[in-house]
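*** Residues and shapes ***
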Amino acid sequence: MSRLNVTETFHQITFPGHLHTQDSLRYAMDFQFQDTDTLIVTYPKSGTTWMQQVLTLLFSRGDPTLSHSIPNWARAPWLEQYYCPDVLKASLGPRIITTHLPYSLLAPALQGSKAKVIYVARNPKDVAVSYYHFHKMANFLPQAGCFGEFLDKFLDGTLHYGSWFDHVKGWTSQGRDKLNFFYITYEEMWQDMRGSIERISTFMQCPLLAEELNNVQRHCSFSCMKENAMVNYTQIPDEIMDHSKGSFMRKGKIGDWKTIFTEEQNCMFDQVFEAEMQSSKLNFIWEPPKDHGPVKSLKSPMAMEKPILTAA
């Protein structure tokens, strides 16, 4: 299945036809979750691959065999992509499932479920930059154009997978109160990987020994994942993902948006962010500290006092 130039529109959101069909999207909406399932939820380029790796290593208690022998999309398939049913039929044990779908589409399927839901968010300026670079190498996504044009589409919510604002608000303002839900940010994982793994293992009710924790931390580091062919997407043919135009595992940093945003674009972004997120309690970290010490949380323009952590 190639369909590289096909766009599927589903509930007024566009999706790349290379991976999605009307049938696969309806399958996701009607999916029967098991109470033992773990669902990773992200907007694209927000730490999806990272969390897939963490959970794989957590379930294997730090043994890297699976994470170095099975591609991440086979270990933790995307629910809305066409191949997911076949992967899940062949899976053994507790299932890890991934999705980029908004809460509004998956809420009916998750209603009453005890499945664990892990939502990973990332500051949207870095998301926009990472997504822009991904568009430049992914031949199944529309051409990125210049960054200014791309940023306008990001802020308008007209890119594939819809609005970042609707996505993060939907899951964190509605899903967290109704689901077995855990919220963590890309930036938290970046600044304290070990502490983040410990929090995730507690939520998953999967305590680790010190040696196991060390192994999980080692094999889900950015440098390790960048060299892992089961994670870095180098197995994908160039006709689908042109590796000459960039690397899937690009930088993995906080604050990369500052290398491309103009002052005018930054001001425009902040205005839209303030308007869209005025009722949100979320905090975001926009850049690392200059002294390379512990990262301090910089409140989003209209954030409330306390960030959401977990709601089980």
Remarks:
- Residues 2 and 18 are 5 Å apart (CA to CA).
- The longest helix spans residues 164-178.
- The longest strand covers residues 116-121.
